[in-house]
Amino acid sequence: MENASKALIIAGAILLAILLISIGIMVFNAATAPVDQGADIATGQTATMFNSPWEAFGRRNQNATQVRQLMNQVNSHNRQNANNMVLLQGTGIGPTNPPVQGQFTFNPPNAGAMFGVTFTHHDNGFINNIIIGAPQ
């Protein structure tokens, strides 16, 4: 009889320990969830700030002067951010002479042409490619 009561006490202690460990894990997960959400929000805000200089060009058709201004912004960005370059391609876009990685030239097919500007994004939301094409 004594052994059975000791076994029940040990079993109860083990169940209590498991319960306390489970509660500790739940509290830890609840405490780290807001940190993860904050990191996701910060990444989204960073992507918005990164994309904002170029997104204005995609809202309406652009003339050759405006596309050249966009190209200059991309070239400037790429000179300062060799690890996070934005590519530029499409109508009238070509490499510099001599070719420099991340640097582009723009030679429109005619002076009065209008161009559409579209973007592709990385999975993280950052623009990685700007495409100059036909008016939208």
Give your account of this protein's structure.
The protein is of the alpha+beta class and 136 residues long. The protein has a domain at 54-133. It contains 2 helices and 6 strands, in the order H-E-H-E-E-E-E-E. The chain has helices at residues 2-55, 64-80, and strands at residues 62-63, 87-90, 93-95, 104-106, 114-121, 127-133. The strands form 2 sheets. The chain has a 4-stranded mixed β-sheet. A hairpin with an 8-residue loop joins strand 3 (93-95) and strand 4.
Rg measurement, Å: 29 Å
Q: Into which percent range does the helicity of residues fall? A: 40-55%
Mean pLDDT: 82
> How would you sum up the global shape?
rod-shaped
Number of strands: 6
Class by helix and strand content? alpha+beta
Estimate the strand proportion. Answer: 15-25%
Helix count from the secondary structure assignment: 2
H/E element order: HEHEEEEE
| Main beta sheet strand tally, sense and closure | 4 strands, mixed
Give the spatial strand order of the biggest sheet: 1-5-6-2
Essential attributes:
two-stranded antiparallel sheet, rod-shaped, 136 residues, 4-stranded mixed β-sheet, alpha+beta, 2 helices
